[in-house]
Design goal:
There is one protein chain. Helices cover 35% and strands 39% of the residues. The chain is α+β, with helices and mostly antiparallel strands. The protein is rod-shaped and about 125 Å long.
Length: 159
């Protein structure tokens, strides 16, 4: 007689194999998660570092454009009095820790965390001296990190 042997084929995974695979995957995921977490912290820090100087640059650009298109009445060390293109009289100065534009309709905050602002006239050398530009210096502090950022811009005025 011929005897038939049954050949059993495994159709699934044993519990030991599942546990071993899970352990291997867990060991691989831990360093990957650590890299992702540290890179997200780095990205957040870089974005925060770039925010304060960018805010100061945009304020400086706005000041340059506004001073260039306005009629300047008086320039003091820490303020400028001007007439806006709309015809409103206004003043730009630092009030506490903010740079503001004050006109007849109210006060507008231009930049926060400002610790110093300075305006200086550029005059012609010929007599009578004529105002040809204004140098604007802004210094702000990043409240999150405590780092000072300074920016200086020169505004050429129309003759």
């Amino acid at each position: 007689m011929i005897q038939y042997q049954r050949i059993y084929r495994r159709r699934g995974l044993s519990l030991i194999e599942v546990i071993a695979c899970t352990a291997i995957v867990a060991v691989m995921i831990v360093p990957i998660a650590s890299v992702i977490r540290s890179s997200s912290r780095t990205i957040q820090r870089v974005e925060t570092d770039a925010t304060a100087p960018q805010h100061l640059r945009s304020t400086s650009t706005w000041l340059r454009d506004t001073l260039r298109t306005s009629q300047i009445y008086a320039v003091a060390t820490n303020s400028v009095k001007l007439q806006l293109p709309s015809g409103d009289d206004a003043a730009i100065y630092r009030k506490g820790k903010v740079l503001v534009l004050e006109n007849g309709s109210g006060v507008t905050v231009l930049c926060s965390d400002v610790i110093d602002v300075a305006f200086r006239e550029l005059l012609t050398a010929t007599k009578p001296a004529r105002r040809i530009g204004i140098i604007v210096s802004l210094t702000a502090i990043d409240s999150a990190r405590g780092v000072k950022t300074s920016l200086q811009t020169t505004v050429a005025l129309a003759p």
